[in-house]
Specification:
Elements (H helix, E strand, L loop, with lengths): L5 E11 L6 E11 L12 E2 L1 H9 L4 H12 L8 E3 L3 H8 L3 H14 L2 E5 L2 E4 L4 E2 L3 H9 L13 H5 L12 H10 L1
Antiparallel strand pairs: 1-2, 3-7, 4-6, 5-6
Helix pairs in contact: 2-4
């Protein structure tokens, strides 16, 4: 996927042959490329810092992290975070763990709210914790998160810092109140 632009430029130029001194008119076509080309070929997804912190708070095991990493790598780019796992025994073999450990890891990921089930063999990576796709697609994915999915953001240091009271100074309309108080 490339966001670089390429623009064709046409112009005429006159050249002089150094040996014979003959002048020639040439039509030149030049391709001008942007200097800020983005050529990102890997699947795009960003896990939030708060998600990493949540994994430490909830004491994720290496199996939990391994399964989560596997799900992140297998997510759909077109369905923005959906993962079709297939049968659990095949998934366990792919990930390299036994079924009991796999079920325990799925339970921990679901309990933390990092993933939620869509069907028995389909899971969704929670867009609150993982940015996957463009802004508009991410916004739609956030609207589709079911209400029963736990949101444990308040356990992280980011959630404790960004409580309602700490955001009062940034809330819409608070600037005018502050200026009104200074003027009084």
């Amino acid at each position: 996927m490339s966001y670089a632009y390429a623009r064709r430029q046409h112009y005429d130029r006159t050249t002089v042959d150094k040996v014979s001194g003959e002048k020639r008119e040439e039509e030149v076509t030049q391709v001008v490329r942007s200097g800020y080309a983005i050529d990102y070929r890997a699947p795009y997804g960003t896990l939030s810092d708060a998600a990493w912190e949540l994994m430490d708070i909830m004491e994720f095991t290496s199996s939990d992290r391994k399964l989560f990493g596997h799900l992140i790598r297998r997510r759909s780019r077109t369905e923005h975070g959906m993962v079709r796992t297939g049968p659990k025994n095949k998934l366990a073999a792919d990930v390299g763990m036994n079924l009991r450990t796999l079920h325990r890891a799925f339970a921990m990921l679901e309990k933390s709210g990092l993933i939620y089930p869509v069907s028995p063999e389909t899971w969704m990576l929670n867009p609150r914790w993982l940015f996957n796709g463009g802004g508009e697609a991410h916004h739609r994915a956030l609207q589709q998160v079911p209400a029963w999915v736990p949101d444990l953001f308040h356990l992280t240091s980011y959630g404790r810092k960004n409580t309602v009271s700490s955001w009062d100074g940034v809330a819409p309309g608070s600037r005018s109140r502050r200026h009104a108080q200074r003027a009084a």
